[in-house]
Request: fold
Amino acid sequence: MTILGWARKRLLSVFAAAIACLFAGCASLGTYNPATGRSELIFITTPQEVDLGNDVHQKLLKEYRLSDQAAETERVQRIGERLVQVSDRKDYEYHFYVVEKDEINAFTTPGGNIYLFTGIMDKLTTDDQVASVIAHEMGHCAARHTVKKYQAALGYNLLGGVVLGQVGGEGARQIASMSSQAVMNLVFSAYGRKDEYESDRLGVKYLRLAGYDPQASVEVLEMLQRESDDPGGLAVLRSHPYLSDRIEVVKKEIQTAEESHSGI
Ligand SMILES: [Zn+2]
Reply:
């Protein structure tokens, strides 16, 4: 078969899979994800996702400076490593960074890179609270929300990469050719409400399994709510909306976890 013929056949099978997915709800397609309990159609492989993450990291370093507070960075890495042990996703190496910026935010990029701004670190008073921010971000990694967001944003051009089996390479090239501003817009674009709830629930699970106090999640969300209500506050919370609903979701999740582990 010519390469063109092979590519056409591969493209047809991708479309056939996509159409089957529409009708079958993806139940029999994709890869089962233990974090979400669903099968997911992810075109970007883990090594390709890591490549994407490296490209985004280089772009981030042009826009932001990493904190030079070694003790604070080591603290975040120590807490992060403890949470990695209980993550549903361990097929890549996680990296934890503290970014010098007076803004109350944390975010995740493809490939397991988790960033906390110094602005949120200043508001977190305990290791459990730091852990709750990291555990939530780790939820986005494990549920593959992050890679799905990039997959969607890179869009139809990825299909060509699917045909050639070079999705991540193509995606990384697209990221590399985007302006820093465009990449930053992608980095800080919001997840959907369902994704936030799912990451909150996973965060509670990881905190509990790693021996941190899940109640710290409620404390952090309440802090975010106070800050977002403060008109003079520093908070840029558009990537973490629906705070009062999320507080209820987290409280319920903590209660459910306690009941199912109390031995009754
Ligand atoms: Zn989130």
Observations:
- Residues 19-28 have pLDDT under 50 and may be disordered.
